[in-house]
Amino acid sequence: RKEVEQDPGPFNVPEGATVAFNCTYSNSASQSFFWYRQDCRKEPKLLMSVYSSGNEDGRFTAQLNRASQYISLLIRDSKLSDSATYLCVVSNAGNNRKLIWGLGTSLAVNP
Amino acid sequence: DADVTQTPRNRITKTGKRIMLECSQTKGHDRMYWYRQDPGLGLRLIYYSFDVKDINKGEISDGYSVSRQAQAKFSLSLESAIPNQTALYFCATSDPGRTGEKLFFGSGTQLSVL
Fold first, then answer.
1. CB-neighbour burial class of residue B32 (10 A; exposed 0-12, middle 13-18, buried 19+)
2. B66, B57, B79: which is closest to B23 by C-alpha?
3. What pLDDT digit, counting tens, does each position of B4-35 carry?
4. Is the separation of the CB atoms in A103 and B40 below 8 Å?
5. Kind of pairing, strands B54-57 and B42-51?
């Protein structure tokens, strides 16, 4: 089982739609969780951290379920500019806090 | 101006050649990283450095070496390039004291080894 797993998609949605991605992780001792966004052939950029109580940033909502070991990202009112790959990242415990990267979920928002 | 700058942006080379990829940053971060990204394999850590005197292997360091010449500079070398080192390479920085575990990436170097 991969340490971090994501549905690769692609998710094709119309503008204005709500779309949700899940990401599962295998290490129950994982400490920190993040969603990064990556446009084609560009560098990843942090979209948001994921906190235990869940957190929201505009149209984006991230949630963590430690019992089931998954995190989720919800995008409301999708924009064309949301089209990208969304990478789930998990940080393990320990001094080095190693980051484990998912392969990403591809989203295409269509007019 | 980019805070994390990688050079070159693209490089095509032949098997057996020595290649150096350079990374410089103006963020003042102590921690620097080299990743490679391959389709279907995601981002994988090659080497990382927490300060000028610290070098650590990542999960796929074989065939690579690094040099941390200064706080702001971290270069990646392929001593004898091989085709399976064709990939998109990213340099990144972080500063746990100020921005936690957030990574700041350069724009990437696309390397093709023929």
1. buried
2. B66
3. 999 999 999 999 999 999 999 999 999 999 99
4. yes
5. antiparallel
Of B42, B101, B107, the CB nearest to A103: B42
Cβ neighbours of B106 in A, within 8 Å: 43
Instruction: Flag if B90 and A44 touch (Cβ within 8 Å).
Output: yes
pLDDT in tens, B76-108: 999 999 999 999 999 999 998 888 889 999 999
Of B44, B45, B106, the CB nearest to A43: B106
**Are residues B32 and B23 in contact, defined by beta-carbon separation less than 8 angstroms?**
yes
Chain A residues interacting with chain B (CB cutoff of 8 angstroms): 32, 34, 41-46, 49, 87, 91, 96-99, 101-104
Tell me the β-bridge partners of A64: A71
CA dihedral of residues B25, B28, B31, B32 (deg, nearest 10):
0
